[in-house]
Amino acid sequence: MIVRHQAGMRAVALSLLGPGPDGEDAVQDAALVALRRIGDVRSPEAVGAWLRMIVRNACRDRLRSVPETSRVEDLDLLSSDESPERVLERHAFRDWIWQAVEGLSPVLRMTVMLRHFNSRAMSYEEIGAVCGVPVGTVCSRLSQARARLAEAMAATASAAHADAAARTDASRREALETLNAAERGHFAKLLTERWSPDVTLFDGRQPVGGREFLVRGMECDLEAGVRQRFVDAVASSDTIIWEMDLVNPPEDPEHCPPAVTWLMSLADSRVSQLRLFHSRVV
What does the pLDDT average to over 262-274? Predict the structure, then answer.
């Protein structure tokens, strides 16, 4: 679908942004929006105009803000009575979109998931911090990912795919079960049963500790009166992102930042690497 209308999409970008990489990036952003919102199209005859409208919105967003703040999720035209959860279920977890995401390399998949598919879209600086790479590398990876997703759309839209929504629902349940186990003092048992015996906590690219370190950290937080409240999850075949709010005790309201992101890499269906990113803005 997108391939057929690329010429018209590029013409719109060229008319608004002129020649250069910004126009191409706007087309790629628009392609990703189209992937997520394909269910909105009711008539095949309307596809071309619909795609050009998305490109115009992407270009206008770039014109009125610096490139770093141009987010694909900000371009979605959501109805006022549609909840974020409904939007995710209707668009972001369409199996054929996730099939395209699964076709990316692990580093591109992780980067695009952190930026575009979790509930708290991370800035380029935050992604660089949690992955241990420069901001320029993050920009390059996102550009590559958007381009490859757009190219993959034609090949994935009509194919049979794994049930991505079911996988994410299972991850949500597992997150809640993990927090419940920790509250009951069974975090170590759960890690033994479900996570790799060699699981490692990383700070960027630097290993920090293993399973015992993770258990001690969770126990220390609970002893200090800090609780984690599940917000959302997103999962691919080898990457899981859990978003948590951190609830501090009344007597120590600044003990922890207000939120934490669990970024997990899987090996043989078990968590083998964990990175934690503490956000000071919810």
Answer: 95
The confidence score (pLDDT) of residue 87 equals 37
* Bridge partner residues of 233 (DSSP): 242
Q: For 195-237, write each residue's pLDDT tens digit.
A: 999 999 999 889 999 999 999 999 999 999 999 999 989 888 8
211-231: string of b/e by CB count within 10 Å (b at 16+)?
beebbeebeebeeeebbbeeb
Percent pLDDT > 70 in the chain is: 75
| Percentage helix, strand, coil for the chain under 3-state DSSP, each rounded to 5 | 60, 15, 25
- Amino acid identity for residue 242 in this structure: W
Strands (E), 16-135: none
69-84 burial: b if 16+ Cβ within 10 Å, else e: ebebbebbeeeeeeee
On the question of pLDDT at 109 being above 80, the answer is yes
Q: Classify 279 as helix, strand or coil.
A: strand
β-pairing verdict for 259-267 and 200-203: unpaired
Identify whether the C-beta of residue 236 lies closer than 8 Å to the C-beta of residue 98. Answer: yes
| Greater model confidence, 22 or 278 | 278
**Which secondary structure element, helix H or strand E, spans residue 7, and what is its range?**
helix 2-17
Indicate the DSSP class of residue 189. Answer: H
**Spacing of C-alpha 270 from chain mean position:** 20
User: In which residue are the tokens 């269910």 written?
Assistant: 39
